[in-house]
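Section 3.1: Structural characterization of target chains.
Under the original work plan, the team committed to producing a structural model for every single-chain target entering the pipeline before any wet-lab resources were allocated. The record below documents one such target. The sequence was received from the expression subgroup and is listed exactly as submitted; it comprises 209 residues.
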Amino acid sequence: MPSLNPEDIAYWYLRLNGFLTLRNFLVHGDRKGETRTEIDVLGVRFLHRREHLAEPMDDDNWIGQIKRTIVVFCDAKIGAQDFNDAWINRDKKVMESFLALVGVIPQTEWASVAHQLYETGRSEPDGNVLITMLLMHHDPKGRVSKRLKSAQQIQIEHALRFIHKRFKKYHAVKTPHGQWEPSGHAIWDLYCKSRHSEDEFVSDVLNGL
């Protein structure tokens, strides 16, 4: 069974919540050979997304409550850690590069939205889109400083519990998954091993990270 890492958990959590995703996206600079930083998982979830036509699956509570398109820049950590320092480097225009990459807002709004992201980790430039930095880590004691107070934070344990519930509720629907990448098969196999124990599933995955 392939080993799992925090990026795998973030990817599957976002994917199961309807985000279109890119993993390990390297953000290049404007000069030859310049690299600004990396996004562990870039996700976009459109407003009208649903899985199943007649009885759509319920996504995680915080996601379902946001009645707009959601863009997340996810930084996934193995332990209790804060966001990558490079992400708040105004001089390198990291957030401007992220916004240009996604293309969800016009260039005229990059500066103001980037400023909000540097300051708080979140921006709502209009009534149709939410742009947020997302930190996924394992910080059950709340030790991280939360310097970006409005950025979304998800505990790895919370993400795993969501995944287990989704797989269990829709076991028959999710069983045909031959096209999934190896990390998806690994998570599914661990779920099947602990199908009747959410706690055991969480413990097994956390112990393997």
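The two ends are 13 Å apart (CA to CA).
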